[in-house]
Every structure is written in C-alpha cells, then in structure tokens.
Amino acid sequence: AKEIHLASRPNGEPVSDNFRTVATELPSLNDGQILVRNIVMSVDPYMRGRMNDVKSYVPPFALDAPLDGGAVGEVIETRNDAFSVGDAVSHGKGWRDIAVVDGKGARTVDLSRAKASAYLGALGMTGLTAYSGLTDVAQFKAGDTVFVSGAAGAVGSLVGQIAKALGAARVIGSAGSPAKVARLLELGFDAAFDYHDGSVKEQLAQAAPDGIDVYFDNVGGDHLEAAIASANKYARFALCGAISQYNATEPTPAPRNLALAIGKELTLKGFIVGSYSHLAGEFSEKMAQWLADGVIEWDETVVDGLENAPSAFIGLLRGENTGKMVVSI
Ligand code: NDP
Fold this sequence. Notes:
There is one protein chain. This protein has helices at 46-50, 125-137, 154-165, 178-186, 200-207, 221-230, 260-263, 280-292, 309-318; strands spanning 2-6, 19-23, 33-42, 71-78, 88-91, 98-102, 107-109, 145-148, 170-175, 191-194, 212-217, 231-239, 267-270, 300-304, 324-328. By secondary structure, it is an alpha/beta fold. It has two domains: 2-121 and 299-328, Medium-chain alcohol dehydrogenases, catalytic domain (Quinone Oxidoreductase, Chain A, domain 1), CATH 3.90.180; 125-274, Rossmann fold. The strands form three sheets. Strands 3, 4, 5, 6, 7, 14 and 15 form a seven-stranded mixed sheet that branches. Strands 10-9-8-11-12-13 form a six-stranded parallel sheet, sandwiched between helices. The longest helix is centred in the middle third of the chain and has 13 residues, at 125-137. The N and C termini lie close together (12 Å). Bound molecules: NADPH dihydro-nicotinamide-adenine-dinucleotide phosphate. The site of NADPH dihydro-nicotinamide-adenine-dinucleotide phosphate has 29 residues, from helix 2, helix 3 and helix 9.
C-alpha cells in the first residue's frame, strides 16, 4: 500500500518537498476494524493549519507519519459486524490508498444515491459547514442580503445557493478569477466580483448598495474589513475561515475597522462544523432534495492519483479549484 507523509513543515506556501509518498506493508486487522480501499479523498484548507506545530482545535500532523483527512472507500476486509465487504464508507483516513479504519470512525454511505465524492462535498462536511454556518451561526432569514467570500469554492458556492433557495433578497460573492465570477452568476448569485480587480471594500459597496445583513467569511483580512464597512445595523457574521492568512508568516493587520461593530451592533461568531452535527439529519434531507431538484448545483475539481494529492492540496490554497477539490485514488 501507499501513503503520503508530512516530510517537513511548510514555511509559508507549502511545496512538494514538504510531502513524501511511502510504501507500506498491509497490517492485519484487530477486532472492530475494517480494511478500506479508498476511492476518493478530500484536501481541505484546515489541513494547512495542522501542518504547523501549534496547538489548535485539531492537533498538528506529526512529521514522518501519514497525513489524514476525509475519504470514501470500499470495505475489502472486515472484523466489525456493522460492516460487510463491499460496503462503501466515509471515514477519516485519507492520504493513503488502503486504510485500516476503526469501525467507530466509519459511516456507511449509499453510492447508488450519489457518487463517492459527494459525501466529501455537498452531502458531507463541506455542505454541513455551509448550511449550519448560514442558518444557525449567521441566523439567516428570508429577505436578507448575503455576502460570501471564497464564493466559488466548495463551502462558498453552497452558501450562496442555499441562501437563494431559502429566500435571500440578494446574494453577492467574491472569487479569484473572471471564470469563477462567471460561474457564480450562472449559479444564481445576483452579483459577483474578482477580488483582484481592485479594493474589496469598493467592489462590495458597489455590489451591495443597500448594505449586507449576513456575511459568511471564508477569507478574513481585507474581505472581513470590507464586510464590516458594508454591514447594516444588526448584521450577523459567520466566521468560517480566514484562508488569506493560512500561509502568513507574520500577524496580519486587517480588519482595521472592527470598532464599527459597536455602533452597528454586529454579531461576529466563529464556528467549527464539528459542533453542528446535530443539524446533520435535517441538512442531508434538504440538500439531497435540492440536488435532486436541480436547485443547487455542485462543482468539483478532480485530481487523479494518490501521488498527486500534495499538488492538489497546494493547488487548493492557490485557488486552482472551482467547487470542491478532491483526489481520486
Ligand atoms: P475552497 O474550495 O473554498 O478552496 C479554497 C479557496 O480559497 C481557493 O479555491 C481560493 O479561491 C481561495 N483563496 C485562496 N487564497 C485566497 C486569498 N488570499 N484570498 C481570497 N481567497 C483565497 O475550500 P473550502 O470550501 O473547503 O473552505 C473554504 C473556507 O472554509 C476555508 O477558509 C476553510 O478553512 C473554511 N472551513 C471552515 C470550516 C469550519 O468548520 N469552520 C469547515 C470547512 C471549511 P480563489 O480563486 O477565489 O482565490
């Protein structure tokens, strides 16, 4: 079998030398475990934080040990009565072709309903992040004007479409290329802009002349500052990610206008999707229906081959994906 190890900790932007592909012997299973041949794995922005040797809400990755993360695969051997050979499962042992998985860490998924990668994207952690962040953290209600950054990415593209499906008055997205902006307009966003085209603050003010009621933040920095500037009284912010800072080697200054939150009586609330698993049932039902009805479309960028997982991850941080970045194994 093969797995990808963290060979060294990135300083700033990760490079391929930070990763190493390692051949391994297949271990024998203990009671309760299953052997899974991975079909597809996820690369996610939060993994960048785990490559630093700092304490966070998830412990750092160890050097010279396999990375891990979301994956979907097929059970090829089982010592757990809850799983049969041939079952498809979603689990946390990505970055390898064959995984020994504790049954407690695996969940059966139905590949006749949706393909494997859907359970990493729209129907998985990504979709729940968008849904719980918008509806619960930001307390979205019909008639709101919503701004989402990182809007052509996995979480962002779902946030905008869910907001439209739930009756947003206006949805505005920002993204990193003209092609992504065009895609957002196709997906039903009312306005979209490329943040490279000038000041985010000015572009947002133009796209939201009546201000915004909800900001779903995937980017941080100047995007957050712009959203504070455009916020209406009592606007709610879901702080989901700050990808503009993940490769930073120095503390970053923006937002410089946080004091505006006082007079505008803003709510800024950070969240981690793991704390919203109680919404998973309601979310999967709604999302399955939206996908079936074509109300929500879901893009993905697929990179082929486990050995290309590091370049998929590096590319994700550079914006080489539209929708969810996944690696087919
Ligand atoms: P995406 O699919 O959105 O991929 C990351 C995107 O970030 C890239 O495609 C790129 O698009 C954009 N980006 C990279 N650098 C910058 C920059 N300097 N400024 C603006 N945009 C940048 O990833 P996800 O949908 O998986 O994640 C989106 C955000 O949500 C991340 O911040 C992530 O950490 C967060 N997240 C948080 C969770 C939680 O529980 N709180 C759970 C899941 C995700 P572009 O071309 O537009 O620049």
